[in-house]
Amino acid sequence: MNAPWQPLLDWWFGTAETSRAIAADKGKLWFGKRDSQDLEARERFGDQVEQALAGGLTEWARPEGWLALVLLLDQLPRMIFRDSPKSFSGDLRAQALVAQGIAADFDRQLRPIQRVFIYLVFEHSENLAVQNECISRYIELVAQQPEADRALFADYLDYAEKHQKVIAQFGRFPHRNAVLGRESTAEELVFLSKPGSRF
Questions:
Q1: Which of 78, 94, 170, 187 could form a Cys-Cys staple with 73, CB 3.0–4.6 A?
Q2: Which long-range contacts (CB under 8 A, 24 or more apart) does 35-41 make?
């Protein structure tokens, strides 16, 4: 009998063997914005997302279940509740879970491509210290990869560094301001007018 988190992990990571093959197969799901994908996430995993956001599924807190729970709190709300404040509602719990799991070395028991989505939780933080921790984790992850995979993971590090620079400059992500009802400063408005400012 499959673990209750296995369908989510299968959907998110697929069945390919290598990091590059998994990323090629699933990259559009991970980083694309498609109504059909958001709907599928809602229909298949919406109930589990609501349970996770309510503080449930604590029994999942072991390496693979922990990864799935982190996805339910961090990635899927950004799909299911896209362009609404609720899309960020799992972030703080996800950050706490990631910190606890890293302290228990859960991340090192996962495949490298799975670890990307653990450290991505820190990349979503509007706290500079957490962002700095994210960069350190990605640097270590890149260094651990075989040469054939290093460029893929270096791209994830590059994206993390771009997020970190925004937090270092503004202390928050200006592209979230409208959704969260925050007033943008003049400096942020200039920044938002530039290509690539909204990730």
A1: 94
A2: 37/79, 38/79, 38/80, 38/82, 41/76, 41/79, 41/80
Question: Which pLDDT band, with edges at 50, 70 and 90, does 64 fall under?
Answer: confident
| Spatial separation of the C-alpha atoms in residues 143 and 133, rounded to whole Å | 16
Give, in degrees to the nearest 5, the angle at Cα 90 between 100 and 109. 35
Q: Is the model's pLDDT at 151 over the cut of 80?
A: yes
* Owner of token pair 């090192």: 108
Q: Among all chains, which residue has been given the structure tokens 């997302």?
A: 49
Residue 1 has pLDDT above 70, yes or no: no
Give mean pLDDT, residues 74-95: 97
What domains can you pick out in the chain, each with its CATH number? Answer: 6-192 (1.25.40.10)
Q: Model-level pTM greater than 0.85?
A: yes
82: left (phi over 0), alpha (psi -120 to 50) or beta: beta
Secondary structure of the chain: what % helix, strand, coil (to 5)? 75, 0, 25
